[in-house]
Amino acid sequence: MANFSKSNVPQFSVDVYQNEYLPEGGREVNAIVTVTATGGGTIGSAVTAPHLYSPGEGPSAAVVLMVDCSGSMDYPPTKMRNARDATAAAIDALRDGVRFAVVGGTHLAREVYPGDGTLAVADAATREQARQALRKLSAGGGTAIGTWLRLADRLLASADVAIRHGILLTDGRNEHESPQDLKAALDACAGRFTCDARGVGTDWEVKEVTAVASALLGTADIVADPAGLAADFTQMMETAMGKEVADVSLRLWTPVGTTVRFVKQVAPTVEELTGRRIEAGPRAGDYPLGSWGDESRDYHVCVEVPPANIGQEMLAARLSLVIPQPDSSVQNLGAQGLVRAVWTDDMASSTSINPQVAHYTGQAELAQVIQQGLDLRKEGDIDGATAKLGRAVQLASASGNADTAKLLAKVVDVVDAATGTVRLKAKVEEADEMTLETRSTKTVRVKK
Predict the structure, then answer these.
(1) 299 burial via Cβ count (<10 Å: 0-12, 13-18, 19+)
(2) pTM for the complete prediction?
(3) What is the enclosing helix (H) or strand (E) of 375?
(4) Which in 189, 211, 238, 372 has the greatest CB count within 10 A?
């Protein structure tokens, strides 16, 4: 394993976009915060990522692959074969030195490789051993996703590494444990590792798969055709191998009298972070942002400030990026942004909405109305579903979210995108509806 220097670590920057002007008595301050990490290496390359905490001290990452082995994976039989091949492809994408394990998931969780309660260290020999072990995977049993996650957590916790990541594949509903059991497992694993979740076929529950990705700050998607699993797993693993800094948090400090209304990620996906705040001293709180490679993400911060008179101004919030340490201290990543409030009687200034704020407010609404529309459609409320999905078409069109617009067009007939006039399609392919629901939170950035 190579020795690393701090110069390998990505450099973080924070940019704040807002209209700082408020009318007399105005209290709500909105800002879009762009966090960017650059210069740490190339995602998907064979470059060895640095161990942020102790450069040169062993492997920097650990990954556990959780493969659904329930009985339904045999229908059709090609599904299990595709899952084995996809897992093998992901293992091939591991960097040398990364620790890894494979878990077979049914109503129980079983270590498939290496099988001794530890993690293997990736090299040519262990990759081949893992491929041999995968050939013995067979389908049979139920589905208890929380059990798989808890085993992955135990395995990942055994490694002294910076990056801990899981990849989870399921083809069915979580029928062999209660929703409360899954929620408890997610709560227990949150902040301990990140996890990408995938549903293969169309017999799984979208809200279960997206809940895993949301709680564990990963991605969720559908692979409707099992033949597409290998390419998707390879891409997921390459992205995971590009992560170089773990456990980044957005620290938000606000002055006396200021209330945080919400903090949410708005690009590349919508993710609510408000309830994940961890108190960090007087008037400060940390919001977890997960693991980072070379990438950029956008966040919407909304605070309520005390009312003030014309001509007054104040610092409404100060943002910084930190990595909490085991001893309760933090490592500051050296990036900071300020959110300001200035009270004015200039009507044009105080009523102008910042383009980034307006755009992402629409994107968050887009994700919400798609979910609401699909839920109403399942409940048989045709009028309600038509209204919500029509609004979704209107928002997707206005914001230039072409990918979501295409997915919507498979569920509704678009009469007029600009006004949101649509008709529900009489017959919708289940895969199309599930794809729209799974990808509803994906956003586009502001058009230049």
Answers:
(1) buried
(2) 0.92
(3) helix 355-378
(4) 189
Q: Residue 330 is inside which H or E element, if any? A: strand 330-343
Closest CA to 236 of 291, 167, 293: 167
pLDDT mean over 105-132 = 97
Kindly report, residue by residue over 155-185, the tens digit of the pLDDT: 999 999 989 999 999 999 999 999 999 999 9
Q: Quick count: other Cβ atoms within 10 Å of Cβ 375?
A: 15
Task: Kindly report the number of other CB atoms within 10 A of residue 5's CB atom.
Answer: 9
Averaged pLDDT of the chain: 92
What pLDDT band is residue 50 in, cutting at 50, 70 and 90? Answer: very low
Q: Is the pLDDT of residue 9 over 70?
A: no
Q: Kindly state the tokens that stand for 255.
A: 């002055």
Among residues 219, 222, 145, 220, the alpha carbon closest in space to that of 188 is found at: 145
* Predicted confidence (pLDDT) at residue 26 exceeds the cutoff of 60: yes
Helices assigned H by DSSP within 135-254: 145-157, 179-189, 206-215, 229-241
Please give the Cα distance from 27 to 305 (Å, whole number): 5
> Residue 45: how many CA atoms within 13 Å on its side-chain side?
10
- For residue 317 the two structure tokens come to 């919030």
- Taking every pair of Cα atoms in the chain, the longest distance, rounded to a whole number of angstroms, is 73
Tell the residue number behind the tokens 């109503």, with chain if given: 107
**Cis omega before residue 76 (within 30°)?**
yes
Contact (Cβ atoms closer than 8 angstroms) between residue 6 and residue 334: no
Among the listed residues 50, 43, 140, the one whose alpha carbon sits nearest the alpha carbon of residue 93: 43
First to last CA, the chain: 43
CA dist., res. 251 & res. 1, Å (int): 33
Which candidate, 127, 149, 138, 166, places its Cα nearest to that of 79? Answer: 138
Token pair listed for 44: 């998907």
The residues, ordered by sequence, that sit 6+ positions from 21 with a Cβ below 8 Å of its Cβ are 342, 343, 344, 346, 349, 350, 352
